[in-house]
Design goal:
236 residues; alpha+beta; single chain; Beta Polymerase, domain 2; globular; 11 helices
Length: 236
């Protein structure tokens, strides 16, 4: 880890080091798809002290680092993205590999269900369609698929389908590990992989019609949490 050389870098380090309320491991290790070569991807949420918002220059909405493969969101920014059903953020809140958890972080995790709504269908499938377009464009350019992104796209679609069916988000893909790793290693053909993606897209659409998820997330509940947390920070 490099020492900060600017005031902004020093602030970023302080926010992550001293104000993180929730930190976890994501990526293949959280999805049950890790191999010996897998990196350790870390994600976190920090609560910027309320006093920092009283200045003209506001605190950062996110920070990269300070460790390799580490990324953190400011609490309000994370809530905004989660209310929009951002796949990366929602999955971060459901990691089974928690490394740090404060009382504020515990309350955040207790609200995970309040972020979930039928919006996940549009958000997850839109993200999947964009990733699929990149994959097919890459095949035209290079002649072969990028198998690791293909595996993670399938995992995301499985997660979306099951969330729509059950109303709960589970990111552990151990049940599908063997077949997903077969995709990663290029042991399935692209037509077989693409057909699996198409089938999952159809199953996501079908699940939307009977999903137990609410039409909209519970924005009022999340906003109440954010206001109380900001107020407590101001008085600390």
């Amino acid at each position: 880890m490099n020492e900060p050389t600017t005031p902004a870098e020093s602030l970023n380090l302080t926010l992550v080091r001293d104000h993180t309320v929730y930190a976890c491991v994501m990526g293949s290790r959280a999805f049950g798809l890790a191999t010996e070569a897998s990196d350790t991807d870390r994600r976190g949420v920090y609560l910027a002290p309320t006093q920092l918002f009283w200045r003209f220059e506001k605190p950062p909405t996110h920070v990269e680092g300070p460790r390799e493969e580490e990324f953190s969101w400011e609490l309000e920014r994370l809530c905004e993205l989660a209310l929009r059903a951002n796949p990366n953020v929602l999955e971060c809140l459901h990691s089974p590999l928690v490394e740090r958890l404060t009382p504020v972080g515990e309350e955040l995790l207790s609200l995970r269900g309040a972020f979930l709504s039928r919006r996940v269908h549009a958000s997850f499938t839109r993200y999947a369609a964009a990733q699929h377009h990149r994959l097919t464009s890459g095949i035209r350019t290079r002649g072969t698929p990028r198998w690791k992104p293909a595996m993670h796209l399938l995992r995301l679609m499985l997660s979306c389908r099951d969330m729509l069916r059950t109303g709960r988000l589970t990111i552990d893909a151990t049940e599908h590990r063997d077949r997903l790793l077969a995709v990663k290693h290029g042991e399935l053909t692209w037509p077989e992989t693409d057909a699996w993606m198409a089938r999952l897209a159809e199953e996501c659409d079908a699940a939307l019609s009977t999903t137990p998820l609410a039409a909209e997330p519970d924005r009022a509940r999340i906003e109440d949490f954010l206001i109380r947390t900001r107020r407590s920070s101001a008085h600390a």
